[in-house]
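Dear colleagues,

As part of the handover before I leave the project, I'm documenting each prediction I ran so the next person doesn't have to rerun anything. This entry is a single chain, and its sequence is reproduced below.
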Amino acid sequence: QAQLVESGGGLVQPGGSLTLSCQAAGFRLDYYGVGWFRQAPGKERESLSCTIMSNGRTNYADSVKGRFTISRDSASNTVWLQMNNLKPEDTGVYYCAAHRSYAGITCHTDEQKYDYWGQGTQVTVSS
């Protein structure tokens, strides 16, 4: 059964750091794009960052550029989101998702393009 499993969420103080991981089970991510999304309380889910597994191309939302870093490892079938200088407005449920990307040109920010989703992990930034 194909699935994505996120981990690494938790409670952190403003200015702190967290690293989220997303591991695929039941399928290989080699020809996929993987994205991280966030749903803040009372808001729609938004795209934060994505990467193409085959070539490492990345994309970041302006709200996280310079603070978040997405990385990948094909051997472990895992994608990480390193989050630094966290702010209270970063609070929300974080999801990873994967879309097929045989051409590897770009990864999608549109969640409708994604084929698999993780269950989400809560990140709370508060003092």
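The chain has a mean pLDDT of 95. The chain has no helices and eleven strands.

All the best with the project,
I.
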